[in-house]
Amino acid sequence: MAIEQRLSRGGRKSTVATTTEVWHFLRLLWVKLGTQRCTKDGAEVKPQSVESIAAQLLRDHRGQHVGLLAPLVVNRKGLYTDLAKWAKARGHTHLRVDGEFVKVDPWPRLDRFKEHTLELPVGDLVISPAKEAELRELLAKALDLGKGVLHLLTPLDGLAEAMAAADSTAGIGMLKVFSTKRACPQCGTSYPELDPRMFSYNSKHGWCTSCVGTGLTLTREQRKAYDDSVRDDDQKGREQSFPSEEADVEGISGEPCPDCQGSRLNPIARNIRFDEHTITAVAQWAVGQARAWAGGLALQGRDAAIARDVVSEIRSRLEFLEEVGLGYLTLDRAAPTLSGGEAQRIRLAAQLGSNLQGVCYVLDEPTIGLHPRDNAVLLKALARLSSQGNTLVVVEHDEDTIRRADHLIDIGPGAGKRGGHVVAQGQAADLSANPDSITGRFLANPLKHPLLPRRVVNRATLQLGLQGASLHNLRGIDIELPLQRLVAVTGVSGSGKSTLARDVLLANVQAIVATKVSKAGRDALAAGVLPALVGCTGLTGFGPIDRVLEVDQTPIGKTPRSCPATYIGFWDTIRKLFTETLEAKARGYAASRFSFNTGDGRCPACEGQGLRTIAMSFLPDVKVACDACHGQRFSPETLAVSWRGKSIGDVLRMEVDEAVEFFASMPSIAHPLQLLKDVGLGYLTLGQPSPTLSGGEAQRIKLVTELSKVRDDVTRRGLKAPHTLYVLDEPTVGLHMADVERLIRVLHRLVTGGHSVVVIEHDLDLIAEADWVIDLGPEGGDAGGQVVAAGPPELLVARGTHTGVALAPVLARDEKR
């Protein structure tokens, strides 16, 4: 079982309960054992007799011309040709399909991917006491064919005329449902049979019609985007799409839906109770409370037999969520509001909570986004899994995980083409003793901190002040953030780090910097008029900041055409170099000739991808190097042009280390290449396809892109570099200890150059290098969102916070020298 490294948290209809599959089992409990209450008067819904239905019709519809229909199919996909033949053989001429009366012969071709409701017209009459016997006879027949359910269409005015003229019958009459199975004893309202789809946010049978299962206030356009029951122009139902393909909709307010108060379900689903609780009430509980409830359920007899396996599944999944430290999350917590570490552990809990044995689990960096405290909890859970007879293969850079492993396989010695060999195997001590193992070298001699003397923070230091930050779980906190310093935002997973640094600080400073662009904006700021602040009451000290740059964890490109050279932006300069060669001028080649995305210059066989994809039917597609250009992406005529003895295809295949020397005389190309080398990416080729980059590589390429932009600005203006506020979201993700050291040096270089760097981080080596640390907590979720310490790393150790406890041995390395 492979658990990949993923940084996405899920769509708006995903919650903690749906991601871990707890919701599927809760739905089963409510369907099988729930008692339904009427949405109008709260009375318990019970079966209705034929007599009570007849009495109701005589009371409410006297004198009306009504039609009695037997529902044969309700909201199911299919063509239903056989059903039409069955109806024809019994003398019926029409069926009512999705509100339209349709002839059974010839039977039209239905959309097999759309849900249909088919009803059989049993008879029609004008209701009166004189026709009570006929009414009872038709009722009995309709209820028999409809298996205890009857649809009443009333009034039938204009139906005969519409059918005779072959007009649409969809708008004629209102439909009422009667059932001998489920009806309110007080108001007589009948309800359909309970169905698991009634509790699904992804089904029109369960969702609240106002928010279509998102739980949020939506505009008409936003509702349309999320409503996947709507038919598309191609006449195929959008319901074919998976919930994971949920539309990405901009500008959604965080306000709960006024109709369902954020519970996402319709009134019928919200009025079904099990153990005296509605499913929406249970969804609002924290994991710990829900586990205690599931553990205390005392069911007897038939109920106990039905619920036994379901409850044990719910319990085991909730126990694992608690075990990985997520007992504080509520079950209905929306996936996009989770932190990276919380999302990572929920995914693990979904897979590992299933209590399997004899499984080989392959985990790709499970500690991503986890605080060292949470890390210890996760390692304990993984140890329990291996003790149950499972094998765990973990790809990991984390020192604690490496030291806890029973067996280590160290691959290297370098990266890219320089790696791919097993350098060392065995215990941590075996790696430390091996001179060829870089991992071993860092295990034997970890970094001593600080690498550079700490920059002092005192009253003379410029400060960015944030007042009353209260978004998500932040508790109205005030912070002073020193500028021109390396600042780390730390705390256990879910304590509010990303909310503070990205959603409040970054968003507001970005808005202010954007306002500075115009003279009117500058005048307004000088007069103390700020743009509307998000998630806080005040912001001060932003004057010196000229620009704001965010480097987050999203991938840099999804197609093989995207590569480091095109993403960072120096590829255009390289193409111009080739157009200036004598060969290119003689042939009349412009810069477009040297593009592998379009034009005549690219290889026609692979269209500039360098790869051919071979479809293997029921096996995964295979990618092989193009047999025409052998992976060089260009046509032979284009490859004939050379600059300093290299063709444009050779340049794409060059490693960054080699390219730095080759382009040394061209500063606009050599500068970003040198930056790539400095952040530890010297082994990448210039044309390496973006989808093959790891998360850590992609984030460092983004950092280099931003760093190279700053230089461009300086040369263009001929002025000092604009003071930039960098906000980095866990830049150490996916990095080896050696690469973390390189990254630390690059960040120090930025701060020495007069910039401000704010890093959301769990990596202890990087935290130990910070000039100032803002530690949030004390715990995650509702128990977090407060500043537990703010100062140099040594202050956190003295205060004994969760981060300080983990940091103490790291800072103590210096004393052991």
Structure in a nutshell:
With 817 residues, the chain is α+β, with helices and mostly antiparallel strands.
What can you see in these coordinates?
This protein is an alpha+beta fold. Helix content is 36%, strand content 17%. It is built from 30 helices and 27 strands. The strands form eight sheets. It has a six-stranded antiparallel beta sheet with strand order 5-4-6-3-7-8. The longest helix is centred in the middle third of the chain and has 23 residues, at 301-323. 40% of the residues are buried. The model is unreliable at 231-245 and 712-717 (pLDDT under 50).
The major beta sheet can be summarized as: 6 strands, antiparallel
What is the helix content? Answer: 25-40%
What is the 3D shape? globular
Q: Helix/strand/pairing class, anyone?
A: alpha+beta
Q: Major sheet: order of its strands?
A: 5-4-6-3-7-8
Radius of gyration, Cα only, in angstroms?
33 Å
Count of β-strands: 27
What is the residue-averaged pLDDT? 89
Q: How big a fraction of the residues is strand?
A: 15-25%
Number of helices: 30
Unreliable stretches (pLDDT < 50, length at least 5) are: 231-245, 712-717
Spatial separation of the terminal alpha carbons: 44 Å
Topology:
Blueprint: E1 2-3, H1 16-19, H2 22-33, E2 35-36, H3 50-60, E3 65-77, H4 81-89, E4 94-97, E5 100-103, E6 115-126, H5 132-145, E7 149-154, H6 159-164, E8 174-179, H7 220-226, H8 267-270, E9 272-274, E10 277-278, H9 279-283, H10 287-295, H11 301-323, H12 340-352, E11 360-364, H13 372-387, E12 391-395, H14 399-404, E13 408-412, E14 421-426, H15 428-432, H16 438-444, E15 463-469, E16 477-482, E17 486-491, H17 497-516, H18 519-526, E18 538-540, E19 547-551, H19 564-568, H20 571-579, H21 582-587, E20 611-616, E21 619-625, H22 636-639, E22 642-643, E23 646-647, H23 648-653, H24 656-662, H25 667-678, H26 695-717, E24 724-729, H27 737-752, E25 756-760, H28 764-769, E26 772-777, E27 786-791, H29 793-799, H30 802-812
